[in-house]
Amino acid sequence: MDQHDALRSHLRRLLSWQDAHADFDRTIEGIPPDLRGERLEGMPHSPWQLLEHMRFTQRDVLNFCRDPQYRAPTWPDDYWPATAEPPTPDAWEDTVAAFREDRAALESLATNPATDLFASVPTGNPDQTYLRELLLVADHNAYHLGQLVLVRRQLGVWAVS
To answer: Which CATH number fits domain 3-155: 1.20.120.450, 3.50.50.60, 3.30.1360.120, 1.20.1050.10?
Structure first.
């Protein structure tokens, strides 16, 4: 395996976060529907808001990397859901499915030998390379997964193992 292949492999693993801490699936699994919109005192976001923010931001980075007509959403209004609770009974599962689909697309981007990881994303600044964007989304997701674990602990729905 050459250095570029090793880097691609590391990026794919980094995007799924299965090594250093709880991954996406473990973090969102088992949150009861009646607690998904619960916003605790002292906590700025509900589980739903964190999940939907992660999905939206990850999709935004993916669009930034692959859409030549990309237009940045408005910060912060477009990046956070308007309500603490999912808007429909199916919204949670729809968001989980969309997050997984977009993560798979980012993993494909990372592992595709045709992607020059050190090239600038055409819609961005010269320092906004594909590598930077993949690291950015992995870091962003890890940050909010940690928040979600904390919220789950406060809600009493996180078993320490």
So the answer is: 1.20.120.450
